[in-house]
Amino acid sequence: MSAPSGAQAAMARPGAFDGTWNVTFATQAGNCSSDHTVPFNVAGTHLSSAGGGKVTGGISPRGNVSVKISVGASVATGRGRLAGNSGSGRWSGIITGDKCSGSWRAVRS
What we know:
mainly beta, 8-stranded antiparallel beta barrel, 5% helix, globular
């Protein structure tokens, strides 16, 4: 058996991102309040809510994330990447009636 290539080694093992993540959203465009934090769970390739709204989405073995978060009438979608115990990306959505967008940062708890 040979050692894995660099590309194979770069792929995370299944479940490498499992756990609870706290995601902080910063607004950079639009009239939305900034710095909301929403927790979500990662189990395998699936994202789900850990409280604070409905969270759906998925994550690839390389850590690429696609997520949708709904809290009441507010809805946001985002894309980004997790690596190790942190991650970041971009989001956009309609928050309390205003179209907004910005960045997000995640930390595994």
